[in-house]
Amino acid sequence: MHALKLRSVFFxxxxxFSTCNELQSRCFYRFDSKQGxxxxxxxxxxxxxxxxxxxxxxxxxxxxxxxxxxYYMNRDVFxxxxxxxxxxxxxxxxxxxxxxxxxxxxxxxxxxxxxxLVELGPGRGTLACDILRTFKQLRQVLQDxxxxxHFVEMSPFLSKVQYELLCCKPLEKKIVFCTDNYxxxxxxPENIDLFxxxxxxxxxxxxxxxxxxxxxxxxxxxxxxxxxxxIWKEMYIDICSDGTKKNLRFVLLPNPTLACxxxxxxxxxRQQVEVSPQSSLIVQEMTSRISESNGAALIGDYGHFGxxxxxxxxxxxxxxxxxxxxxxxxxxxxxxxxxxxRNAALPCNVDVSGPISQNKFLKHLGIDTxxxxxxRSSSDPEVRRKLIGGYNIMINPAQxxxxxxxxxxxxxxxxxxxxxxxxxxTGFE
Length: 429
Ligand code: SAH
Prior knowledge:
The protein is α/β, with parallel strands linked by helices. The protein has 16 helices and 17 strands. Strands 2, 3, 4, 5, 6, 11, 15, 16 and 17 form a nine-stranded mixed sheet that branches. Strands 1, 7, 8, 9 and 10 form a five-stranded antiparallel sheet that branches.
C-alpha cells in the first residue's frame, strides 16, 4: 500500500490512541542503538509517512533529543558561534548569585551536614563551575559540609563538555547511556563527586537536595491546543506536498485527542494553550523529594503566569527561525508556564514563591554591589566591557530583565522568626 494511503488508514486510530503512541515511542528511543536515521528530518518524514501526523510534543522531543541526530545531542549550541546565549555564559556574576541563594537557603533550612546538588540541563557546565567556585570562597560559612553534584543531561556531547570543564581533564572513555543508574561519574580537583544521569529518577533520594533548572524547562516538549467553536482541538504536524517538494505543516486534528481531555484545565480562559506534562512530572518529582528529605529548588526561564498563548519558536544563529525547517539544526523552545509548574508543586507539603522577574531577583541578591566590586578590581577594558555588557542583558527589562523569571520551591522546615513565621525566601521579597 502507498505510504500516504496507509497513513490515512491509520489516521483515525492515531487520533484516538495518540497518548499510547507517545508511550510507545518513548520506549522506542534507544540510546545505545548502533543504527539510526541519518537526520531528524529523515526520521520525522518517515514516521509521518508510515503512521500519520505527530503531536507537537513528539515533534519537539525528536527534534531536540533524538539519539545522535537531535539538536542538543551532538554539538555546542551556546555562545556567539552557536544559536543562543544564556546568563551563566554571559557573566560569572550569575552563577555567583545562584550559589549565594543556595547557601542562604541551606542555612534557612537548618544547615544540614551534607548537600546534594542537582542541576537539570547543565549546558556547558559553566553554571555548575561558577557555583562550585563560589562555594569554595564561602568555605567559612559552609565549613566541612559534604557535597556531591548530580547532573541530569540527555546529550552525550554536552556531558563530555561538562565533565572536562568540571573535572579539569579530558574524558578518555566513550559515553554509554544507562537508564537504571548514573552513566558517568567524575571528581573535581577539590574532591567533589560528580554524577551524570539521563533522568531525575536515578538521582539518589532521601537526602537534603538543592535543585537548579536554568533554561531547562523551555526545552521540554509541549502539546499545543486551539479552541475552535468552543471545542479544544490538538495541533499536530503533517506533511504537505506540492507535487515536487515535501514540507511540514501544522494541522488541527478534527477530533479532540485524549490529551485535549486530560491536559487542559477546566477553567482555561485562553483560546490557545501550550502544555508540557513532562515538565509537570519533573516538578512533582523534585517537589516530593524536597518535602520528604528537606531542600529547595530554583527554576529560571523565559516564561509567563498562564497568560501567553503561542510561544513555540525556533532559534538559529541568534535569530528567530521556522520550527518546521532546519529540523535538528535549530533550537526549538516554548516559554515556561509558571502557573502550571506552580500548580504541579502546590499539592506537596512545600512553599512555592514567584515567579519573580530576573531583574528583581538578581537585584535582591545584590548584583549591583557585586558588579561594583568586580569593576573596582579590574582595570582591563575588555573585562570591564564584558561585565557591564552581561549585566545589561540580564537586567534590562527590554532584554532578559522582565521576560526571564524565577520560581522557588522550598521545604516547609525553614527557620522561624521571633513571631514563629518562616523567614522569607531569599531574593523573592
Ligand atoms: N542550563 C544551561 C543550558 C540550558 S540549554 C545554561 O543555562 O547555560 C538546555 C540544556 O538541557 C542542555 O544541556 C540540554 O542538553 C539539556 N536538555 C534538553 N532536554 C533535556 C531532557 N529532556 N533531559 C535532560 N536534559 C535535557
